[in-house]
Design a protein that fits this description.
Distance between the termini of chain B: 60 Å
Structural class of chain A: mainly alpha
CATH topology of one domain in chain A: Helix Hairpins
Low-confidence stretches of chain B: 185-239
CATH class of one domain in chain A: Mainly Alpha
CATH topology of one domain in chain B: Four Helix Bundle (Hemerythrin (Met), subunit A)
Strand content of chain A: under 5%
CATH superfamily of one domain in chain B: NADH-ubiquinone/plastoquinone oxidoreductase chain 6, subunit NuoJ
Strand content of chain B: under 5%
Distance between the termini of chain A: 58 Å
Shape of chain B: globular
Structural class of chain B: mainly alpha
Low-confidence stretches of chain A: none
Shape of chain A: elongated
Number of helices of chain A: 3
Order of helices and strands of chain B: HHHHHHHHHH
Number of strands of chain A: 0
Number of helices of chain B: 10
Number of strands of chain B: 0
Largest sheet of chain A: none
Radius of gyration of chain A: 17 Å
Helix content of chain B: 55-70%
Order of helices and strands of chain A: HHH
CATH architecture of one domain in chain A: Orthogonal Bundle
Helix content of chain A: over 70%
CATH class of one domain in chain B: Mainly Alpha
CATH architecture of one domain in chain B: Up-down Bundle
Largest sheet of chain B: none
Oligomer: heterodimer
Chain lengths: 101, 239
């Protein structure tokens, strides 16, 4: 008998919580991006767990699409970080308070 | 329904070790002072999640997780960290907003408690088991089932991801491209970097070398840029 799905769901909730906490308390934009990746992984783990519990492959397909969206999000986000860093040599979210370039 | 089943020792051990790896990596991401260490901790978490994917018969996703996440996304993170040279240590103890961390902890604890209470009250998984159509590995391999679902039921979404990726690539090129002063007034089109004009590149280099001289050509809204720009640009060139 494999591990019950509830264990996975609790683990995914804890992982999501840690990611959200990091997003709230860290100020480095790059680390904040990594915390978003943590939260996405927690959601992925939940989807795969539900796919196993309910016997539906749709959960795994959603994870596949989440991977694609995460890749696109990281590419654009890091492009924004590079563009901001070119104007102001810092990656702290606290110091980025001006919309004007 | 869930307390009744008891996992076998290898399954439970795999889950326990993976959970420890995942949570250790996650805590490493949010607590390490050096962004490079955070990225390496992220690899640890991603690897643990991949192990749990295999444990739940999602073989293809586990491989994709390793290749795409650990192989491409984290490398992209590391590349940007080292490209920008921001791998210096950050003072984590410094707290600019007083009370931010206790409030964040409180909020996150409320969210976690709410999610867990919801899960317990809903018996973790509601809904009927799939009886027809796409099944997880119903006699076939996981890759077969996933591929069939992607190319039949979810075909439109799959095609849409192609468009998303193209848009992301174009956006990354536009964002990471060094702006040219002469083009700043143009609405769009030439801004994409696809137009190949020979005198554009010297203009960009002149901006790097002598930003004060190039400011005469700038439109009024961009006047503030050259005064701020020399420091980061020269720093970057020196690396």
């Amino acid at each position: 008998m494999s591990v019950p799905g509830a264990w996975y769901l609790v683990l995914a909730a804890a992982l999501f919580t840690v990611g959200a906490l990091g997003l709230l308390i860290r100020r480095n934009v790059l680390v904040m991006f990594m915390c978003i990746e943590l939260m996405l992984n927690a959601a992925n783990l939940t989807f795969v767990t539900f796919a196993r519990m309910l016997g539906d492959i749709g959960g795994q397909v959603i994870v596949f699409f989440v991977l694609v969206v995460a890749a696109a999000e990281v590419v654009v986000g890091l492009g924004i970080v590079v563009a901001i860093f070119r104007r102001r040599a810092e990656t702290s979210a606290d110091d980025l308070h001006v919309l004007k370039g | 329904m869930l307390g009744a089943v008891h996992p076998t020792i290898p399954d439970a051990a795999t889950f326990a070790v993976s959970a420890a790896v995942i949570m250790g990596g996650a805590l490493g991401v949010i607590s390490s002072r050096n962004p490079v260490h955070a990225a390496l901790s992220l690899v640890m978490t991603l690897f643990g999640v991949a192990v749990l994917f295999i444990e739940q018969q999602a073989d293809f996703l586990a491989v994709v997780q390793i290749i795409v996440y650990a192989g491409a996304i984290v490398v992209l993170f590391l590349f940007v960290i080292m490209f920008l040279g921001v791998d210096r240590r950050e003072n984590v103890a410094f707290e600019p907003l007083r009370g931010q961390r206790p409030l964040a902890l409180l909020l996150v604890a409320i969210v976690l408690g709410g999610v867990l209470a919801l899960g317990v009250s809903a018996d973790w998984a509601t809904g009927a088991k799939a009886v027809a159509g796409a099944r997880t590995a119903g006699g076939h391999s996981n890759v077969y089932a996933l591929g069939k679902a992607v190319f039949t039921t979810y075909l439109f979404a799959f095609e849409a991801t192609a468009g998303l990726l193209v848009i992301a690539v174009v956006g990354a090129v536009v964002l990471a491209r060094r702006p040219k002063m002469g083009e700043a007034a143009g609405p769009d089109g030439g801004d994409l970097g696809l137009v190949d004009d020979p005198e554009a590149e010297p203009a960009g280099l002149e901006l790097v070398g002598a930003p004060g001289m190039a400011s005469g050509e700038a439109v009024p809204t961009e006047e503030a840029v050259p005064t701020e720009e020399p420091v980061p640009v020269e720093e970057e060139v020196s690396r």
